[in-house]
């Protein structure tokens, strides 16, 4: 048995000892078959949430209505979800209610794609009523059951299909692809937060080019925030080297730059990103634009800082633009005479006592001038040198 399954095995054993069924399910089973790195290990069981909670010393009730309990073992969290069938779907979103059931097969049947509907018991045997293993062999993403119905139940599954294409490089099965073309507009009814999670995963996948090409072919982007009619820009995104990017923020920055989006904040707010992410993304875009305008300067390094400068280098690489080396940026940054105003050898109080003038706008203006001169290396960061410079440059 693969290493990530060994510890949570005791969860399955405990549940079985108490007369319940329990299996590994979902992404971890899929990924172990593919030979891909395994993410979270999830468990499905016939035990009801309260029964699960009674059997383990440390649990967190995530959502009684969805039957999910987190079991904490040695500090690791495992989601244990009661077999369930989903009740009525409302407005093309996740169902409002679920029914707990006793059949594993029925639980697998409500899952999105056949590759995600395989269960594994504690002996490593696979239970695969929808031929998910064959789909993995054939590298096909195919809904469990009729695609049109499944996308009408929960439209997010269309975005998930594209993100799995990006992560796995698989093909969309024909009916699944046709159903996306037909039902993409239902994405309007899905909460933006859920779409954003899948979209970010899609942008980060190694086969993102393939996924974006499919997005354009099916027209899904027309129903994503701020991307209506942006097929050409998205093709440019697909053709850039996204693998050069390291952070989620850089992916968003690249998207904004390709879209030539003037209203960055409004665009990112549509995706419901956090204010903190929005700030960082905008700062990266501003740094990129500053370098495009002025070339690399000490002033830009100082203003935007090392992390932002590295964002810019990675964006250049993604666009195939010749740029400075990572090490060169780091060394240059380290060599800057100062890294913040705090490191300047003079303070506002010094300027006031030297000039005998009271505080006012002149003070911050003068400090800013000194800061610029010091950063550019035209003025030594020493009190005496600065005092001398002030004498010669006093208006
Ligand atoms: P990852 O490795 O990225 O976590 P995953 O397949 O585990 O991929 P999750 O979002 O963690 O994806 O979902 C876990 C499992 O729950 C899926 O494998 C699938 O069986 C099921 N699932 C998740 N979302 C849906 C959905 N919208 N509709 C139907 N089944 C879903
Ligand atoms: Mg998962």
TrEMBL record:
Q: What does the annotation say about its assembly with partners? A: Homodimer.
Q: Which GO terms describe its molecular function?
A: ATP binding; CCA tRNA nucleotidyltransferase activity; CCACCA tRNA nucleotidyltransferase activity; magnesium ion binding; tRNA binding
Residues forming the tRNA nucleotidyltransferase/poly(A) polymerase RNA and SrmB- binding domain are 169-227
Family the UniProt entry places it in: Belongs to the tRNA nucleotidyltransferase/poly(A) polymerase family. Bacterial CCA-adding enzyme type 3 subfamily.
Under PANTHER family, the record lists: CCA TRNA NUCLEOTIDYLTRANSFERASE 1, MITOCHONDRIAL
Q: Which organism is it from?
A: Priestia koreensis
Gene Ontology biological process terms from the UniProt entry: RNA repair; tRNA 3'-terminal CCA addition
Q: Which residues form the CCA-adding enzyme C-terminal domain?
A: 245-390
**Protein name, as recorded:** CCA-adding enzyme
**In which residues is ATP bound?**
27, 30, 111, 154, 157, 160, 163
The keyword RNA-binding belongs to this UniProt entry's keyword annotation: yes
Q: Which HAMAP family match?
A: CCA_bact_type3
Binding of CTP, residues: 27, 30, 111, 154, 157, 160, 163
Miscellaneous notes for this chain?
Answer: A single active site specifically recognizes both ATP and CTP and is responsible for their addition.
Give UniProt keywords alphabetically: ATP-binding, Magnesium, Metal-binding, Nucleotide-binding, Nucleotidyltransferase, RNA repair, RNA-binding, Transferase, tRNA processing
The record, for SUPFAM superfamilies, names:
Nucleotidyltransferase, Poly A polymerase C-terminal region-like
- Matching Pfam families: PolyA_pol, PolyA_pol_RNAbd, tRNA_NucTran2_2
* EC number assigned by the record: 2.7.7.72
Task: Specify the superkingdom.
Answer: Bacteria
Functional description taken from the UniProt entry: Catalyzes the addition and repair of the essential 3'-terminal CCA sequence in tRNAs without using a nucleic acid template. Adds these three nucleotides in the order of C, C, and A to the tRNA nucleotide-73, using CTP and ATP as substrates and producing inorganic pyrophosphate. tRNA 3'-terminal CCA addition is required both for tRNA processing and repair. Also involved in tRNA surveillance by mediating tandem CCA addition to generate a CCACCA at the 3' terminus of unstable tRNAs. While stable tRNAs receive only 3'-terminal CCA, unstable tRNAs are marked with CCACCA and rapidly degraded.
The prosthetic group or cofactor this protein requires is: Mg(2+)
Residues holding Mg(2+):
40, 42
Q: Which InterPro entries match?
A: Bact_CCA-adding_enz_type3_sf (IPR050264), CCA-adding_enz_C (IPR032810), CCA-adding_enz_firmicutes (IPR023068), NT_sf (IPR043519), PolA_pol_head_dom (IPR002646), PolyA_RNA-bd (IPR032828)
Catalyzed reactions: a tRNA precursor + 2 CTP + ATP = a tRNA with a 3' CCA end + 3 diphosphate; a tRNA with a 3' CCA end + 2 CTP + ATP = a tRNA with a 3' CCACCA end + 3 diphosphate
């Amino acid at each position: 048995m693969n290493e990530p399954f060994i510890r949570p095995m005791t969860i399955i054993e405990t549940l079985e000892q108490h007369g319940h069924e329990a299996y590994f399910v979902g992404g971890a089973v899929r990924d172990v078959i593919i030979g891909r790195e395994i993410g979270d290990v999830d468990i499905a069981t016939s035990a009801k949430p309260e029964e699960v909670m009674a059997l383990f010393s440390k649990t967190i009730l995530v959502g009684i209505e969805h039957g999910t309990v987190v079991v904490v073992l040695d500090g690791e969290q495992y989601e244990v979800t009661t077999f369930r069938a989903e009740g009525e779907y409302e407005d093309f979103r996740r169902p409002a209610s679920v029914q707990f059931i006793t059949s594993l097969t029925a639980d697998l049947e409500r899952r999105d794609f056949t590759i995600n509907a395989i269960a594994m018991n504690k002996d490593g045997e696979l239970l695969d009523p929808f031929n998910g293993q064959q789909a993995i062999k054939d590298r096909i993403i195919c809904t469990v059951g009729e695609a049109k119905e499944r996308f009408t139940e929960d439209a997010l599954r269309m975005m998930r299909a594209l993100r799995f294409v990006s992560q796995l490089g698989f093909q969309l099965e024909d009916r699944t692809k046709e159903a996306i073309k037909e039902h993409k507009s239902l994405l309007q009814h899905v909460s933006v937060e859920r779409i954003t999670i899948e979209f970010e995963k899609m942008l980060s996948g190694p086969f993102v080019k393939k996924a974006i090409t499919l997005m354009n072919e099916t027209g899904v982007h027309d129903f994503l925030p701020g991307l209506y009619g942006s097929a050409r820009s998205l093709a440019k995104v697909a053709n850039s080297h996204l693998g050069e990017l390291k952070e989620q923020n850089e992916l968003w920055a690249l998207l904004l730059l390709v879209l030539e989006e003037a209203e960055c904040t409004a665009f990112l707010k549509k995706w419901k990103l956090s204010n903190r992410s929005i700030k960082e993304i905008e700062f990266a875009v501003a740094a990129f634009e500053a370098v495009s305008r002025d070339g690399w300067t000490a002033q830009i390094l100082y203003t935007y800082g090392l992390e932002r400068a590295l964002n810019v280098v990675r964006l250049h690489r993604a666009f195939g633009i010749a740029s400075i080396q990572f090490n060169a940026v780091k060394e240059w940054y380290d060599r800057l005479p100062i890294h913040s105003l705090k490191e300047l050898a003079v303070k506002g109080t010094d300027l006031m006592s030297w000039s005998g003038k009271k505080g006012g706008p002149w003070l911050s203006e003068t400090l800013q001038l000194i800061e610029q001169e010091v950063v550019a290396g035209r003025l030594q960061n020493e009190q005496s040198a600065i005092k001398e410079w002030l004498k010669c440059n006093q208006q």
